[in-house]
Write a structure and sequence with these properties.
This protein is an alpha+beta fold. It contains three helices and nine strands.
Length: about 180
């Protein structure tokens, strides 16, 4: 049965700055390449969901990534690619376009802008959230930005890494 690759996925991090529309977060965005081994799985969506659930991340959804820039100001988010690939701009208009593919996981601290730029036909992303925080969808208006600047610092840090658990790299990266 496919499982998380506990040793193979070294975190790649980026810090995106506030661009006046998308607040982003001083905590780093984290990318784990090939974090979840989907080799030979007939149901890769379930494999990703099980990995997130086993580490206390819930509110699971299956979809792609919205084609417009957006962020969540009251909760952190993890996204695992179960099928296909996409180019996603993280960090808003002045952010960075990153290709993510099956087996990759990204962890977005609250306020991190994201927008799909291109996707393969079979793209399927699984999203998850830590049990603390509240889901909201912000599109980058001035009023949202002002509220987000107040709410983002209040979002609790997760108790576990969504892929690697309580001792995963995220725990050290977000507590420095």
């Amino acid at each position: 049965m496919p499982t998380a690759r506990k040793a193979a996925a070294q975190p790649i991090t980026h810090v995106f700055t506030d661009d006046g529309r998308i607040p982003n977060n001083p905590l780093p965005f984290v990318l784990y390449r090939g974090a979840i081994d989907l080799t030979g799985s007939p149901d890769p969506e379930r494999v990703v969901e099980k990995a997130f659930a086993a580490n206390g991340w819930g509110g699971l959804w299956r979809n792609g990534v919205y084609p417009y820039v957006h962020y969540h100001s009251m909760i952190h988010e993890a996204m695992g690619v179960a099928r296909g690939f996409a180019r996603v701009r993280f960090g808003g208009d002045k952010g960075r376009v990153i290709e993510i593919a099956a087996g990759d996981v990204v962890v977005l601290p609250a306020g991190t802008g994201h927008q799909r730029m291109m996707e393969s036909a079979e793209l399927m992303v699984i999203g998850a959230y830590p049990p603390t925080g509240k889901y909201n969808l912000c599109r980058g208006s001035k009023a949202e930005h002002a509220r987000a600047l107040a709410s983002i610092p209040e979002v609790p840090l997760p108790a576990t890494d969504p892929v690697f658990g309580p001792k995963g790299p995220l725990m050290a990266l977000w507590r420095k």
